[in-house]
Amino acid sequence: MARNTRRAGVTRNGSALISIDGVNAHALKNAARKVATANRRHRAGVSTWGASGIFDELTFADSEAGVPSMRTLLLLYAADLAFRLRWEIGPALDEGRLVIAAPYVATPIALGQAAGLDAQWLADIFHFAPPASEHHVIDPAPAKPLSQRQGFVEFAWRHLDTRLSGLTRLELMDRTRHHLRASAQRSRSSGASR
Amino acid sequence: MPSPSFEQKLRRLARSHFEDRSRRRGLLVAFEGPDGSGKTTQRKLFKTWLKSDGYNVVTTKWNSSELIRPIIKSRKAIRVLSPLEFSLLHAADFRHRVENVVLPALWDGKLVIADRFLFTGLARDVARGLDFDQVLKLYQPLLWPDLVFYFSVSARTSRERIAATRTPTFYEAGQDITDIDEPTASYERFITRVIREYESLALIFRFITVDAEQSIHDQHQEIRRLFREGEQRPWSDWNLDAIVEWLAIRDAQA
User: A54 to chain B: which residues are within 8 Å by CB?
Assistant: First the structure.
């Protein structure tokens, strides 16, 4: 992580949203735990993808129902994030708590860019997500394929399979990491965070 | 999605495919309008007529993707969808059908009848308080129908026709946003807003408005006539982005 984890980005009323993005689900989980531990007195909590159950249902869908394209999958991620914001992130912030969203919006945006989707469209579909007080990118790629429930990029890879214009798993991971690094750099230079 | 040179190749392929006058090109006809406007009855009559005229017809209905519909249905049943989640999930359902039903059929030269299209999402989502431009972006790359028939009825007629057959469901009645406990009363309030949005869309996107208060027979005759005029419209590049993206996916699958 680029910055230290102690009392990161906490506002006057004690609430703060910290985003941690990356392709490596284990690394994300560890980083989120570290930040939560360091901010125990702010009753820090972690919000992760899939809270709405949408992706569980997708996993168990009839094979004849087809597979989602990257665009469809990212619309589903946006719906899942809207759910997380309404039921997890928003209420916790209202209580003056610190929330770590891991992943937040940078991961799906980078994944979409890796698959060649228009960056503006990707930004537009996540326009509803409030900016985080701090944004961190966890860079290491997973050494080996993770289970599909362990990371959104891994999940996407398994569900999209060959529909990604011939990208291999490693190429998808590398391209996503490249776009994540670029987003981290942009947010560092602009001071903004997403 | 594809590399620039491959994308150019796909654009040329799409143009030559849809501009080829030696065969019947795929046509997309959308039926839009509030519940109770009789569009489903007209869609069925229209389909029967087209088939008798030799058209290969495919129908797609709103919120009918086999992959996404169960996700929406389970959430509607327990009434947990916010307007934003409602909007995003319906956009996902739409995209999945565009890629798996609509575009493959158009490519094969079929005539696709859409019983509701993206305008339903726009009208309902904006009536629920979402921003028009933001909702429209969810549906990009846009796929415009060759013809849009808009079945125009008053809120009162819509309410009366629905109430005569059933009680509107929670989301159909807009009870998630009206705070009215009685479904039919909520429905009338909500459908008034939806119709207002439809009327704006009809102007902006130049729908063909059908007076849905006319008799079923008269409406059907009018639709036949308007279709004959409209089917001659040439292929337009408006849909090129959506088609190229789909061709790239299809190519990767192959």
Answer: 71
